[in-house]
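Re-run with default settings, no changes from the original entry. Doing this only to confirm the output is reproducible before filing.
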Amino acid sequence: MSRLVVLAGPTAVGKGTLLRAVVDRDPNVWVSVSATTRSARPGERNGHDYHFVSDTEFDDLVSSDGLLEWATVHGKHRYGTPRGPVEQALAAGKPAVLEIDLDGVRQVKKTMPDALFVFVMPPSWDELVTRLEGRGTEDASERERRLATAREELAAVDEFDVTVVNDDLDTAVEELERIIAGAR
């Protein structure tokens, strides 16, 4: 059985970019697909990027213990990790990674304390703001909400086992790759 790797960090820090690069290099790395109540962004595909579900469907997952963790993110939408696929990947010995928020990390720490918790850190606050603004996917009020959440997440860095600073993409990808390989 593999050790679960849990990846978190503030919005726009590049968690998804890092994971995609790791999977491109090693297709055996299994990345959990979260369920969410938010609408798909342009280019996102249901079942690939997220499982886009209604509030009622999400409530059903919660009540049936079908989620390993779940949270309301940025005070607006709910996200959660379907439990079954994670357990199946680990039992099959696959390197398994969750990309979740801080509330989810804290829940997983209670249910799977042997997981390896990795925090992705921006090189600086100013760079984080620049990256978020550069995405162009959120309006000004949403950006402010996400930055407020980012401040809380950055303050929790000591709750993690390992920190990866996403300053140079290639270096950060190589570091994350080594971390995931070490969890096998």
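The chain has a mean pLDDT of 92. The two ends are 8 Å apart (CA to CA).
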